[in-house]
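Researcher: Here's my situation. A collaborator sent me these components and asked whether they could plausibly form a single complex. I don't have experimental data yet, so a predicted model of the whole assembly would be a useful starting point for our discussion.
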Amino acid sequence: MSQAAKPSPVVQVAELKRMRAAGEKIACLTAYDASFALVEDRVGVDLILVGDSLGMVMQGRPTTTAVTVADVVYHCRCVAPQLSRAFLVADLPFLSFATHERALDAAQRLMQEGGAQMVKLEGGREQAGIVEYLAVRGVPVCAHLGLQPQMIHKLGAFRVQGREAAVAEAMLHDARVLGEAGADLMVLECIPSSLGRAITEAVAIPVIGIGAGPHTSGQILVLQDILGISPTVLRGHTPRFVKNFIAGTDGIEAAIAAYVAAVKRGDYPAPEHGFGG
Ligand code: KIV
């Protein structure tokens, strides 16, 4: 079994910010269970997300909207005890942050019961009040712009966001507002690479991309996508930004180590994994 040398130190918000400032790429993956979490932590994944993608990957649903706070807490409790270095982020699922009180209650559960160190929420400037409300109470927040899967029933399909100049400009503004509201991290999903670069340059916090091009501070993918075993990939719908890392390796640990190394070197994402404007 291949196993990359474990980088140090333990990852916290300050370390993520240092990495951004130093130009060191941040390698992130989802995990929902103990076994994969342990492997990811051992091979040097910097940040692990218990994403609401668990609804599609673990529960086999077509969207993330049925995922509950209890579901995310359950999977956090599987993952958190395995981590000795990686930073653990948990998703606030659909409608769990519809009011300030619900957001605080959900964040409390994810952090106190689940062991998460940060919560992630989808949305633009309309969420700035919630971000600030959580941040001033000691809850680190990751914003999530671009494709917001929780909006699927309004969007109609998972597709690239921000190709039109006005939408791109609004997203840039959203990013600045969310950073000023106290977000410590930002995820950009499925946007043109040029917009990924513009947003990363416009905000001071680390920016993690998924289908947002090579210029962000780091990358995140769904673990089962890079292993070729997610329901989406098995059904033949591999998103453009997904690369299969298990091909040509001798197993899962080597594949995850290869992903980390590719992100760190800047080899992933390659131009073919990105979207044009
Ligand atoms: O739910 C999730 O896994 C996510 C990532 C795809 C960023 O939000």
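Model: Some features of this prediction you could bring to your collaborator: The mean pLDDT is 96. The CA atoms of residues 165 and 277 lie 9 Å apart.
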